[in-house]
Each structure stands twice: as structure tokens, then as C-alpha cells.
Design a protein that fits this description.
single chain, alpha+beta, 8-stranded mixed β-sheet, 5-stranded mixed β-sheet, 16 strands, about 40% helix, binds histidyl-adenosine monophosphate
Amino acid sequence: MSPKKKKVEELNKDSESEGKERYQTVRGMHDILPREEAYWKTIREIGYEISELHDFSFIETPILEPAGLFEEGIGEATDIVEKEMFSFKTRGGEVVVLRPEGTAPVMRSYIQNHLGHFASPLRVFYEGPMFRYERPQAGRYRQFHQWGFEIIGDGDPFYDVQIILVTINFLTALGIKGLKLKINTVGCRVCRPTYRKRLLQYYKTEKRGMCKDCIRRYDKNPLRLLDCKEKECEEIRKGAPIILDNLCQNCNAHFKETLELVESNNIDYEPNPHLVRGLDYYSRTVFEIASEGNPKLALAGGGRYDYLGEILGGRMIPAVGVSLGLERIIEYMKKENIAPRKRERKNVFFVAVGDEAKKRSLRLINTMRLASIRVLESVGKQSIKNQLRSADKTKSKLALILGQRECFEDSIILRNMESGEQETIPIEKMIEEIKKRLR
Ligand code: HAM
């Protein structure tokens, strides 16, 4: 290569690396930036309001849990456990994972802390990050946030539908319309084995046309054959036996009663006999909720998990719950132009001119904040013009101007940012006067 060409190549290399930061977020993970604050605040505020309104108490479990909790709880033959867990050994040799979901940890906590003694059923909600090593794509991340509701300690369909209703009420309060519930039952220990056998019989003759994953699922987790998204498998599924024809009497009654309650609550629903969901702990009711704007992307999913307590070493504890995917909800809101909650920002903007004023400003600002007045400032910008420009930009109602003269006279200027009117008031009256004007 000629020296000239080499130089050009080196230059190109430099310009390529320019703008590339040394460190970036890990693939599939993202920062939540200040410009998204309004959405996250809205979701969390409404989440807390809805949780309280529906009588759910707060619970928070650690992000790290023993790997076995999910291997046993979610099931070894699920995608999550087989290939999506972030697991590692601690210095003490314990194998832990970043929690991929919140239900197994809540049940662990229920057993560990004897929460059944305090309320029956126990109604809890949680919010926080979950981690799954999935292929990143729209609406699917490796770190994402869920809001979850769990009702533990009662097997009545009444609670299945309460869980569905709290989810719909949450999404509706956010302004999401056209919600559709997809619902199914996956039976119980009595009827599922027979159904499983029938499924295996059917798929045995179809094996040649199935995708690679389904061939594996055939041996390990045949129910999951039903929700494979590959074209060839969707075709095969059309002839598969459905669980509704194989339910035991109790599961049949449970599903019937659940659907009756769904109907009497005017929930727009569609029974989907192929909905099995990706977690093995479910029994009886399973469901997903999506909106008509993107019916394929579930905003929430859940179901009943009556055996999870027993699997985790306790006893049989009937339970039902749901989790909502917060990133998906926010993306949906943005796409459909659903605005986050508007706040009337009653703030004041502090303008300090000169060194003495700047020195005094921090104490004055803090006094106002202690009196619950929202104060913004850009004291570092020095010039009064720039500071007032910021006051304007932030739509502050009042600007407080402290200059050398005001410092000397122990006074401060109040400027009405709408009318431009200004008046000078004694500093000891500052709080009282501001509150009067902000009212
Ligand atoms: P899940 O269906 O795995 O259920 O997740 C619930 C919701 O979390 C999904 O509907 C979706 O909105 C969101 N979600 C799941 N994976 C991702 C991802 N990789 N990126 C972005 N969002 C995602 C559960 O987790 C169960 N624990 C639900 C439950 C609670 N069942 C009973 N109680």
C-alpha cells in the first residue's frame, strides 16, 4: 500500500472512532433519560394510585436471587431458564441470577416471611427492573421494568378477574384504549397429563415439519408447541387437540366462572386455546392484554399459579397475578400520541447578579425549598439576560432577582414573568409574598 493511501486509511479510521464513546450501555439495556421523565412519573404515579385504590400493598424483593428459585419455579424447560438468565457465581460460590421476573421472588418471600399469617389473601404490588438475555428488538430488552400485582392465598375465579380488572384499570387510566384480553386455561395436575399425552400423540406424526426449537420442545415442554411463532409450526398447530376438550370438571367450572365474570364486567375478550405462556408455573387461567394499536405486543401477561408455593418448598398456595411491561407501555403511548400527565408547574426562578448575590443565593433558595416552593436557577450563567431567558424557557411564573443593591438593602425583586411587572419587597417577606402570588 502506498504511504499516501495508508495515511488516508488511518485518517478514516480516526474519523470513524470519533464520536464513539469509550463506554456504552450493555447490549439490550438502555438509559432512561430526563426527557422521558414525564412518562415514567405518570406511570409510577398512576401505578401507586391504582394499587392503593385496589387495596394492594407494596413489596420489594432483591434483584439478585438464587438461581434455583427460577429453575424450579419457572421450569427448567422454559426459554427463560434455558437460555435467558443472567447468572453468575458470587465470591462465596453461590450461583445467583438477576431476576428475570417477579412472581417467583414474591412467592419465595411469602413463604420465607410467613406473609400468609398477615392477610388472606395477601395482595401485593411491586415495580422494578427484570433481566432476560433475549434477542433485543422493538419492545424486547435485556433489562426492562415491570409493574406486578399478585393475590396469594385464594383460588376463587373472583380473584382471577380482579387481577384482570386492575390491569385494565391501570392501562385505561394511562389513556390506553381498545384493550383486548386473550384468555385461556392450561388445566391442572389432574387434566394436564392426559392433554399432554394427546398433544404428544398428535405432534409425533408432524415432527418432520416442525422447527428446530419445537423438536426440542416436543420432549421437554410439549405445551409450548402451541405458541410457536414459526410459520410451519403455526400451520401444524391448526389440527392440534385443544385443552378445552380435555379439562377436568373442576378446571372446567373454574374457567366457565372466570369467563362469566369477564363478561359481566364488560371486558372485551377473546378465548385463545393456544395461549400457554412462557412460564411453567401456571395452572388454570392464563391471559395476556394488548391494545388494538398493536395487538401482537402484549402490554401485560399473567395467570394463576396454584402450585408454585408447593414447588418452592412450601405447601399448595392458590395464587394469581399479572405483570405489565413498562417500556412497552411507554412506547405504545408515544406511538399513539398519548400524552403523559400534565402538571401545572408553579415554580419560581432565582436570578442572582454579582458575586455577593450568588453567595447569598444558596441559603435563600434552600429556605424557599424548605417552605415547599419549587425553585429553579441557572446562577452559573452570570448575565441577568441569560438567567431571565432561562426563566422564560422554563415557564416560571415568577423570577426573583437579587443584585448587589438588593443584597445591601436586604430586599429582593419579584418579577411577574407574564406581565413583566416588577416590585421590590423586603427579604423577610419573600416566602409570604411568593406564596400569595403562586396561589
Ligand atoms: P411475562 O409475560 O413474561 O410474565 O411478562 C409480563 C410482561 O412484561 C409482558 O407482557 C411484557 O409487557 C413485559 N416483558 C416481558 N419480557 C420483556 C422484554 N424482554 N422486554 C420488554 N418487556 C418485556 C411475567 O413476567 C409473569 N411474572 C407475570 C405474572 C405475574 N404471572 C403471575 N403473576
